[in-house]
Design brief:
Largest sheet: 7 strands, parallel
Number of helices: 17
Strand content: 5-15%
Distance between the termini: 27 Å
Order of helices and strands: HHHHEHEEHHHEHHHEHHEHEHEHEH
Bound molecules: coproporphyrinogen III
Helix content: 40-55%
Shape: globular
Number of strands: 9
Oligomer: single chain
């Protein structure tokens, strides 16, 4: 059993630092593009044999220390009654964004085995394929991040509608957060029951909120999910970007591992997070698009500073982008695995 990723989540010593990448499966890989040429992204997610093959692509190509389920944080929207599509060049588009209390009342608190059976089947099949050699991470988006797509109708840079709803219709916001929380809690529990050995909760856009708004309007909800999963005994990675002002509050909400982006200094962040948590991060993903020697140099420099302290999982600070050269990904993984401290 190749378990250095799970050991690091528990802050146990490992032979070398474990490494995996957010968005490690995707358009930068020729193997992915070959399948994507024949199927839409949603078809890939909804066909377990294809989703399994894509989940395994980066494990085979780079020998990363964890596999992450091939799926998307927005998949829960459809069974909740809010269909969406990925429009080329535009990103996700939700056809009927949420605006009123009645809109939120209509959302279904769906059962994952009914609403997303193909995701759970993918989890079961990936576990069988990996046969204990590499651990599998399941995931979902966190209530705020998923709700932002539901309210804005797609991606946003200002979160203007999301904040307006949060401030102007607090009862509607609370009902929306409660419904999202219950859907996501059940969905993640079902992924664990199907075989996911760790969970990452993506609160990717949470940095848009002030500390006060996070604590008032989001933290109590996200904490329900995190605490519930931690009770199951699986490691839970609590990830966000632009979170320098929120780190302590995120820790208070929960997480075995806190995922940070490149804007914070990893060691300074770890001091604030505390020695009872593991940390994941935090190379700027765009470094992998530059000179390979620079990406490798920054990788080595980060590992030198961490100096083998137990509980570090090497990752990028946000997802790999489609223009990332495959050879640089391989070079960074090898540099992490070849790195020795002292
Ligand atoms: O990490 C992995 O390899 C696992 C798969 C994964 C995907 N999306 C695959 C994907 C994961 C973990 C996600 C999470 C996700 N999805 C997040 C949180 C992480 C983050 O980036 O902050 C968010 C915000 C989304 C929503 C989403 N899905 C967006 C904004 C897009 C881009 C749309 C576009 O047109 O570029 C997606 C699509 C998506 N999700 C792709 C992949 C491989 C590209 C789909 C394609 O092939 O066209």
């Amino acid at each position: 059993m190749h378990d250095r990723f799970l050991r690091a989540c528990r802050r146990e010593p490992t032979d070398v630092t474990p490494v995996w990448f957010m968005r490690q499966a995707g358009r930068y890989m020729p193997e992915y593009r070959a399948l994507r040429a024949k199927h839409s992204f949603l078809e890939l997610c909804q066909t377990p044999e294809l989703a399994v093959a894509i989940t395994l692509q980066p494990v085979t190509a780079f020998a990363v220390d964890a596999a992450i389920l091939f799926a998307d944080i927005l998949l829960v929207l459809e069974p909740m009654g809010a269909p969406f599509e990925f429009v080329a060049g535009e990103g996700p588009v939700v056809h009927q964004p949420i605006a009123s209390h009645a809109d939120v009342e209509r959302l279904r608190v769906c059962d994952p085995e009914e609403g997303l059976p193909w995701v759970l089947e993918t989890v079961r099949l990936v576990r069988r394929e990996l046969d204990g050699k590499t651990p599998l991470i399941g995931f979902a988006g966190a209530p705020f991040t998923v709700a932002s797509y539901l309210i804005e109708g797609g991606k946003s840079s200002s979160y203007q509608k999301t904040k307006a709803l949060m401030w102007q219709q607090p009862d509607t916001w609370a009902l929306l957060m409660e419904k999202m929380t219950e859907v996501l809690r059940r969905y993640l529990r079902a992924q664990v029951a199907a075989g996911a050995q760790a969970i990452q909760l993506f609160d990717s856009w949470i940095g848009a909120l002030s500390l006060e708004d996070y604590q008032r309007s989001v933290q109590p909800h996200v904490s329900v999910i995190l605490q519930d999963l931690m009770e199951l005994g699986v490691p839970v990675i609590h990830f966000g970007t632009n979170t320098s002002h929120l780190l302590e509050a995120q820790c208070e909400a929960g997480g075995t591992v806190i995922g940070v982006d490149w804007r914070v200094d990893l060691l300074a962040a770890w001091d604030r997070i505390g020695s009872d948590r593991a940390i994941q991060g935090n190379l700027d993903p765009l470094l992998l698009c530059g000179p390979p020697a620079l990406a490798v140099g920054r990788t080595t420099a980060l590992l030198d500073r961490v100096a083998g302290r137990a509980g570090h999982i090497f990752n990028v600070g946000h997802g790999l982008v489609p223009s990332t050269p495959v050879d640089t990904v391989k070079a960074v993984v090898d540099a992490v695995h070849e790195h020795r401290t002292g």
